[in-house]
Amino acid sequence: MKALSKPKPVTIYEVARHAGVSIATVSRALRDSTLVTEATRARVRAAVEELNFTPNQLGRSLAEGRHAANGIVFPDLVGPYYAEVVLGYEEVASELGRSVLILATSGRRDATAAVLDLARRVDGMAIIANAVPDDVVTDIAATGLPVVLLARQPVRGIDTIRTRNDRTAAELAAHLAAHGHRRITFLGDPDRSSDVAGRLAGLRTGLRAAGLPEPAAVRCALDVAAGEAAAIELLAGSDRPDAVVCANDEVALGARLAAEAAGLRVPEDLAVTGWDDVLAARFTGLTTVRQPMRDLGAVSARWLHHRITERTTDGTPVPARRRVLPTRLVVRRSCGCPAS
Amino acid sequence: MKALSKPKPVTIYEVARHAGVSIATVSRALRDSTLVTEATRARVRAAVEELNFTPNQLGRSLAEGRHAANGIVFPDLVGPYYAEVVLGYEEVASELGRSVLILATSGRRDATAAVLDLARRVDGMAIIANAVPDDVVTDIAATGLPVVLLARQPVRGIDTIRTRNDRTAAELAAHLAAHGHRRITFLGDPDRSSDVAGRLAGLRTGLRAAGLPEPAAVRCALDVAAGEAAAIELLAGSDRPDAVVCANDEVALGARLAAEAAGLRVPEDLAVTGWDDVLAARFTGLTTVRQPMRDLGAVSARWLHHRITERTTDGTPVPARRRVLPTRLVVRRSCGCPAS
DNA sequence: TTGAAAGCGATACCAA
DNA sequence: TTGGTATCGCTTTCAA
């Protein structure tokens, strides 16, 4: 063992010298097939083996003018929601030979700077929900960097993929109405998420169609504690609802805790529904809505790849794409249905 | 608008020309403070503004000889476990000014190649559990690339961080023994995860200490379906246990389903415990063990950063570090304790 | 089929 | 304090 301090990186030059060829030939041998004799290719391979050469990705990328990497930006990874999206994204991206850089923006003051930094390291990026403000999104897209938006209000000229909120929420409303629930309250903040806004809008539509009064809406964050706190206050009020439709499952679970604490039975005294169908929903009989989160990530990775590769063959600007993935009402006990 | 086809990247050269200085000065103005007049700095800044210049990260990294990026490798992101680890890792890494590349190896044939590719794109990487085989780990570490192992059997010469399995599992065993459970079976595969192996070992130790017989061990994967299937078979057998200790919460939830299907009450007829304390555990009264997953990621990011930065000042090779983070038994109903 | 050499876009050393 | 220029490691014409 020599000095461990500097593991002396092996470059293409050494390989070339070792194989008795030029660096150009080494480069070719390592990628093209046609332009190199099988004999020389073998010599190069041998040298590569012997020297344990591994091409420097930076040099390569710089020369090729591409990163061969994609980014994905999300608020955080709390709860299974975003994690699933990221997983679907990663799977497809790496199938397509691209590395994946992640960035969580929640709770950091320099989110914008971080996203701009990310933009310098990738050939395209997906942005989930409200991870970054609109103007940053448009700024980045204006750079020419391919961007795809997920679970977020579309921005002009940018590809967007969402999951169905309105229609399924309306369906949920009809279902609750059929159960005889009349005084329905929505728990969640429509101003902080376009998904939540869509769910509330759908709920409104559905209730109206059922001839029921407008639902009240109580703002709260998307976690158990927030849902519990909001529900405690709500249930202590004079005009207690007979059903709460929650923006997601965590909130619903929190609402349930509040109901228990208030001595109310679910669903007899208070129906509760969620959204996302997390594991806990299944095991607590929570009626909810399932969405194809993995697909959301997968599709976005695929779209991004198209954008990235198409942009080399510059033709007419391909118009922005939109897609809404289907969601499905999952009926369990908490809405008033008999235990299955 | 001109041709949108080639957004013509703005380089440091244009900025230099625009500001009437050399590229060296531009570079300085954008980083050092001392070596540039405030006046010239202003001119450079103006040019940067006007041209909307953004430095190319590849050029920069190549020149600096570093990626300013870290990798993290995990089997998958299913369940909250790895997601939390990744989140903790990302948070610290980006605080330290490093980007984060992720790689999921589960269910891909070319896992090794993918990890090696990742190794070319980062200054260091964390590897979780059995995401990649030992020999690959040592190969990468031999490269000189800083590596830290998480929730995994230590490898000679490599930093490793784990969470406490044995001791807490023994504690759990004692708790179950105190409940009067005597015939205890373990559900999980100790051969596929050092965490699982540690939990089983701890269970053994604890039961022995309590004067109870050796636990049976039934192998199964770490998801609900696997747990359910394994438990169905187990409970159908002639020598039914009175408690099953599961390798994680998902398995425990599956076991519970099996118990219900078999007409057994939990915990009266069968006690069930899990590991991880996922959300569903809390809401189903599952006795389990909580681990600091976020910390696991955070600490590893910090260690990695040390390794990466220390290696410039080459001195004596710092010996590999080891750390075991504490875990905590969370007692709920499923072990036999009264509902709290 | 192969080699020489010109980039790719920054950093940083050496002079001035 | 500034400019000129070598350098990082690779890809890719252009000739031979």
Explain this structure to me?
The structure is a homodimer of 340-residue chains. In chain A, 44% of the residues lie in helices and 15% in strands. In chain A, 50% of the residues are buried. The first copy, chain A, has 340 residues and is α/β, with parallel strands linked by helices. Chain A is elongated and about 85 Å long. In chain A, the strands form three sheets. In chain A, strands 2-1-3-4-5-11 form a six-stranded parallel beta sheet, with helices on both faces. In chain A, strands 7-6-8-9 form a four-stranded parallel beta sheet. In chain A, helix 8 packs across helix 9. The N terminus of chain A is likely disordered. In chain A, strand 1, helix 5 and strand 2 form a beta-alpha-beta unit. The termini of chain A are far apart. At the A-B interface, helix 4, helix 5, strand 2, helix 6 and helix 11 of A face helix 4, helix 5, strand 2, helix 6 and helix 11 of B. Chains A, B: Keywords: DNA-binding, Repressor, Transcription, Transcription regulation. Chains A, B: GO terms for molecular function: DNA binding.
